[in-house]
Amino acid sequence: MESVKKTKLDKKMDIIKQKEEVGLLENKSQNRALRRFLNNKLAVIGLIISIIILLAAIFAPIICKYFPQRVDILNRLQPPSLEHIFGTDKIGRDVFARVLYGGRVSIFVGIGSALGAAIIGVLIGSYAGYKGGLIDEIVMRISEIMMSFPQIVLVLLVVSIVGQSLWNLIVIFILTGWGSIYRMTRAKILSIREEEYVLALKAFGLNDIIICYKHMLPNALGPVLVNITLSTAMFILQEAALSFLGLGVPFNIPTWGNILNMAQDISVLKENWWIWLPVGTVISLFVMSVNFIGDGLRDSIDPTQQG
Amino acid sequence: MIVNRAMNDNAIITVDNLKIYFYTNQRCNKAVNGVSLKIKKGRTLCLVGESGCGKSTTALSIMRLLPELSRIEEGKIIYHSDEGDIRIDQLKKNGKKMRSLRGSDIAMIFQDPMIALNPVYTIGFQIIENIRCHTNMTKKEAKQRAIELLKDMGIPLPEQRINEYPHQYSGGMRQRAMIAMAMSCNPKVLIADEPTTSLDVTIQAQIFELMKKLKEKREASIMLITHDMGVVAELADDVVVMYMGNIVESGTLEEIFKSPTHPYTKALLKSIPVLGRGKNQEIEPIRGITPDPFKRPKGCQFNPRCDYYTDKCFKMPDNFEVTDTHSVRCWYYKKVSGNE
Amino acid sequence: MLFIITFLVFLGLELTPGDAVSYMVSPEALANISQQSLEQLRDSLGLNDPFIVRYFKWIRGVLKGDFGYSLSSGVPIYKIVFDRLSATLELSITALLISTFLGSILGIISALKKGSVLDNMLTFFGMIGVSIPQFFFGLVAILIFSLRLGWLPVGGRLLPGREAFLDTLPYLILPSLVLGLTMTAGVMRYARGSMLEAVNKEYIRTARSKGLSEWRVKLIHGLRVALSPIVVLIGFRLPMLIGGSVVIEQVFQWPGIGREFVSAVRFQNTPLVMMIALLFVLVMLISSFLIDLFIAMLDPRIRLE
Fold first, then answer.
1. How confident is the model over A142-156, as pLDDT tens digits?
2. Assembly ipTM
3. Maximum separation of any 2 CA atoms in chain B, in Å
4. Staple partner for C235: which of A174, B140, B209, C291, CB 3.0–4.6 Å?
5. How many CA atoms lie within 13 A of C275 on its CB side?
6. Which of C2, C1, C4, C8 is nearest to C273 (CA)?
7. CB C288, CB C226: distance < 8 Å
8. Calculated CA dihedral for residues A273, A278, A283, A289, nearest 10 degrees
């Protein structure tokens, strides 16, 4: 016979058991998903960090001393100081201001594209999935074609045809990105479609559109939320890459990627680390936080996960 | 927790005051809350109850196959092997001793063979794996044995079938294959968790025949989990009725069917149609609904739905022995059995 | 599918501003041509034919290897493509190999030891790898290894005059590692997820009920099933052989198709853009076919249908 040792898991279980017996846990059965999310340390940290960065970007005019466009040749290429927290760039612009203002644009592009792609994907996905038939087939084919290109290639392709601008970029992102949400919504709708309550609704004579959007859609929304979050992260990275290449947002508007574009110059890379290193770190931090939130959301919504 | 001393020599597995708690979603669910039963040699014990009453959990705990976020809180599980009593609850979950019991002394079959069998390996592979894990047979010998087993279980063309994959079998055949796999090392105990729930009624009957044959020919004891009283009537020698993590009544098949003494058992029997009673027989569903495991009633778990309930039922009833083999947990069992 | 895409590509080509002749014929031939001869030339090239006819003629040309000429340099496109292709393949195949093996192995180990310190560390690094912009990672790597430590060259592929493969090695290390490591993060997360899912299936419980050892349960039963999606992932990543290195090639000045593509886009060199796009499509279709092949090989349920 082997003796049973108390493991860490055992101790955690003991604590839960005691709480349960005292009745501490009873009222918390409200929002299980929320509870699980808040229990996920990484997700919460991610939430905090991304909110901090977001707020900093939104309140940029209050926080920054200098305008991001303000040129000051006399003070160019200054290392970080109390005057300029992140130093100045090649033509004397305050890097800190550029980072904060740039954040506005980059985050806007990220969230905007993700939301836009989600809205289109969900609308088309739910209706096409619900109705089936020819519409569904056609849309499926289109999305298959678009999804099989590596995203960057597709985006570059479209940029080469329609040219560069901030709004073009968002539209392009939406066009190349709606596919995955469409697929996901469609799959969920297909599985719900056969469930009995839908048949019942149909038997009551409810309009197709109402059935589709009012009754079936809310059940599919969980994963969509996760997708929006993770897409935001992806789009921010893509914007950064494109702007870095000089093919994203035009240069007159500062974005995180645009700022990094300067680092293509080897001397800047070597000597003026403050111009690109902080920006890159901020991007990485923000994207990582958003990814943590997305993962946390996914884990807390997933019914098979055992918290 | 004393059960039946007279039958003690007869038991192959004894479960004593078993408590199993689940810890998912940061809550504590007392899924099994003090269960005692015996699986007797050469007899079939049926564990009956609604979904969620803890019967599968009890069975899985005998095999120590409970999921990660759960544990045996208290109680004993004793396997009366030829070499002496083994405390299964105290063995290391996936340790050498436990693993040597699984598959060769105690075997288990599951509800849905389509998902319980690995789709990427042939049936033959999966049976042979079990054989070679517990015996010293060579590959060839094991393969021969597997073919014999398939034949025994009634699968046609076993030499060909042995190289096929689960999805190439029909539902009934898959279950037979799983039984073949479980019986391959001649276990003393076979635990079957709702083996026919996912099958057609006609196939169900065939599987029952097979199980009866197994019991006779191989002297195996069977523990059958089910929610279907019809299945119980077919196969059981002894019956244990569970509700919300407790055993409410246990006894032989005759005792339970002919003279039930617990309100729940009586209600269960009344709620199923019986062949032969005609189409005007009264079927009464049990009133009320199964309580939320986190908002349990005080004392006897059945009291909100019970016709005989009084304030005394707020205290968990003791276990009363009606006869040597028949016991029940209800304060009013005499009244219940009187009102036939 | 192929039909639609080539059609789209041709459409894009047609939208090129300027005279189609400028990219259909070599610049030398165009240099001293008179207006009249130009008209004749256009006629002979079928530029005055209806759209559909021109489309098919173009397809025929492509199949023969005539990709047209680059607008900016006048070099025949197929030459550009083939020159650059080998450089890109060097880089991407190395990165793909690194990421596939490293990612799968680490992901599987991570799943097997779920909750352990190793798992948490790997998951964390995986998260970083997926969040950090590839090019930023590259820049930092250059800063540390080339500029500060001076161990590896800053960029480019070869010094002129040296052709042997071993000579490219020092140049290859940094870009392929940067590309490979960032891709590893993605593969690792996927492999871990796939393995965790496989290990939670019913048949794993059945395997345990037979008394098999834990390692056998997890590897022979779990891994074998988890492998299927992981291998399929390889198929999905094949298009990255050409498209995935776009940014890295820019950062490291690696003379590959990616970099070529970027400058083509930048200078609105549409014929080149379109041709490379066509190449991507081809790779995509081939890999799609390979994916189906892999799935059939690994999952007997599909094989026998």
1. 887 777 666 777 777
2. 0.83
3. 67
4. C291
5. 28
6. C8
7. no
8. 140
